[in-house]
Amino acid sequence: MTHGPAAVHELIEESGWSYPVSVRRVEREHALSNIQVDKKGNSIMVAELFAQTDVDRFEDREDLERKLEPVFEAESERRKVGIIGHLKKTFLGKR
C-alpha cells in the first residue's frame, strides 16, 4: 500500500488534478481521507497532516515530497512505542 508523500500524490492523481496544486484544494476534497504514514500501517487524516505543516501549495511531485517527507518522518517517529509504552498504554491507559 502507498504511504508517505506518495499517498498524497496518489490522491492528487486520482482526483485528476495536475501540478501545481494548492493544499487547500487537496484538503477541501480529501480532508477526512486516511493516508498511510508508514509501512507499519499507521495512518492519518489529510486534514490532520496538513495542520502540521506551513505549506500552501505543491509545485510538482518533487516539491510535494520535499515538503511532506519531514512531516511524515516526524509522525512515524512519534508513533513508535516500545514494549514498555505498549504495556503502559494497555494496562494504565497512559501514552
Task: Write out key terms for the chains shown.
single chain; 95 residues; mainly alpha; two-stranded antiparallel sheet; 4 strands; 11% strand
Summarize the structure.
With 95 residues, the chain is mainly alpha-helical. It is 56% helix and 11% strand.
What does this structure look like?
The protein is mostly helical. The chain has one domain (5-92). Helix content is 56%, strand content 11%. The protein has five helices and four strands; from the N terminus they run αβαββαβαα. A two-stranded antiparallel ribbon has the order 1-4. The chain has a two-stranded antiparallel sheet with strand order 2-3. β2 and β3 form a beta hairpin. It starts with a helix and ends with a helix. The mean pLDDT is 88.
